[in-house]
Amino acid sequence: MTDDRDLSATAADGFPTGSGGHDPEVLRQRALDALLTARARTATLTDSVDEGELTAQHSPLMSPLVWDLAHIGNQEEQWLLRAVGGREALRPEIDGLYDAFEHPRSARPSLPLLAPAEARTYASDVRGRALDILEAAPLHGGGRPLERAGFAFGMIAQHEQQHDETMLITHQLRTGPVALTAPAPPEPTDSGTLPAEVLVPEGPFTMGTSAEPWALDNERPAHRREVAAFHLDTAPVTCGAYQRFIADGGYTDPRWWAPEGWDMVREHDLSAPLFWHRDAGQWLRRRFGVTEPVPEDEPVLHVSWYEADAYARWAGRRLPTEAEWEKAARHDPATGRSLRYPWGDADPTPEQANLGQRHLRPARAGAYPAGRAPSGAGQLIGDVWEWTSSDFLPYPGFVAFPYREYSDVFFGPGHKVLRGGSFAVDQVACRGTFRNWDLPVRRQIFSGFRTARDA
User: Fold this and answer.
1) CATH code for the domain of 250
2) Domain shared by 342 and 423, yes or no
3) 233-286 pLDDT, tens digit each
4) Is residue 295 within 8 Å of residue 364, measured between CB atoms?
């Protein structure tokens, strides 16, 4: 997941070009809104449970919620107060406790962590100082690299939202009483008339970005990619479709599985997505403390890359490459441009995508017609993170900024790329170029997939 990429390295020159034309006051307001939105969500996630739940480790895969809370404050202190503001360190003695690389998640409960009240006070104290720095920062194209276009403030807002997503995963893993509620997402209006797949024609397109002011280093630089023609599912694979894979012996037939995936199935006796179980002939799932029937027309969730890959093989298809996914999501053949989002360049609205924890589940397949791409594919932003077949690798001309540990140390065949965000992702950390990555065994994340085939 994107939450444990430590932000504690020293800032360096290397801010990508393309941000100098952004109005400083517009960016200042955008940064303020993003920081306040993130902090309100952090409060929702941490105020909804008692102190014991905050300090408990609900899964060895995750940190105690109170660790995330103080880590958010510590990273904001290091980057906004110290690196941008030049302020003296408030709590230098805790830097090591909240270094994600120094302490694995499973070991964090044994650390002398700040207690919930102290963590809240610390994060609040840092935030007050950070907002003072934001008010005075120049944010123009000629400033220091971290300040240009408000990059450091956008980076910290994204970091907090990424930890909010991680804390929401912890809420899903915890077994206590229901703590979070949200309305259901909108119903599809024309799903019955949608084609099963769309054709994306061959040809070049511009992948990545050199102009998005808060894009992170692995999204840069923009570059041309040639993509052969392919067919792509119009919507993510649904729970109903995935049940047919299960019923056909998908978890008992090694033909469909990569060797490491088959080892995982046997070692953990897997037979369905995480949080599913069978009762009286019906598939049920646990979702944020509620047990409910698995909805057949909702995108499948909590599947690993190995499960997604096995389903695609069983269906006679494959997972799309990262370049295929981005072309289907961004390329506008009428203009030859790559859009910021499938629907255009404007920021997401609630009518276009399921983002920001407005709903605690994906919308049903075919929802959000206003968010469809020129290719005809829908729900490419929000709902579920979508596994691709691609390893996480740098783009040509990649430059680490502002520290190696965000992306560079993760490049290689060990991590697979996910695209598009989920209902748990805020718009500040989700765009057409945004790249997430994780180990192919991960199932607790809000991950689904769609499939492709050659044309």
Assistant:
1) 3.90.1580.10
2) yes
3) 999 999 999 999 999 999 999 999 999 999 999 999 999 999 999 999 999 999
4) yes
Same domain, 431 and 451: yes
136 burial level (CB within 10 Å; 0-12, 13-18, 19+): exposed
Tell me which residue of 326, 329, 276, 327 sits closest to 303, measured CA to CA.
276
Q: Is 168 helix (H, G, I), strand (E, B) or coil?
A: helix
| 8 Å CB contact between 290 and 233 | no
Do the beta carbons of residue 62 and residue 173 sit within 8 Å?
A: yes
**Does a structural domain hold residue 178?**
no
**Domain containing residue 97:** 2-173
179 within some domain: no
CATH number reported for the structural domain that contains residue 56 in this entry? 1.20.120.450
Q: 20 is written with which tokens?
A: 């100098």
Report CA-CA distances (Å) from 198 to 110, 301, 340, 343, 450: 51, 22, 20, 16, 12
Query: What's this model's pTM, rounded to 2 decimal places?
Result: 0.95
372 part of a folded domain:
yes
Q: What is the largest CA-CA distance in the chain?
A: 66
119-176 pLDDT, tens digit per residue, is 999 999 999 999 999 999 988 766 788 998 999 999 999 999 999 999 999 999 999 8
- Alpha carbon distance 81, 88 (integer Å): 8
Query: C-alpha distances in angstroms, 154 versus 38, 210, 390?
Result: 11, 16, 27
Q: In angstroms, how far is the first alpha carbon of the chain from the final one?
A: 32
432 inside domain: yes
B/e letters for 90-129, b = 16+ CB within 10 Å, e = fewer, are bbeebeebbbbeebebeebeebebbebeebbebbeebbeb
How many structural domains is the chain composed of? Answer: 2
Q: Is 62 exposed, middle or buried (0-12, 13-18, 19+ CB in 10 A)?
A: buried
Cβ proximity of 231 and 376 under 8 Å: no
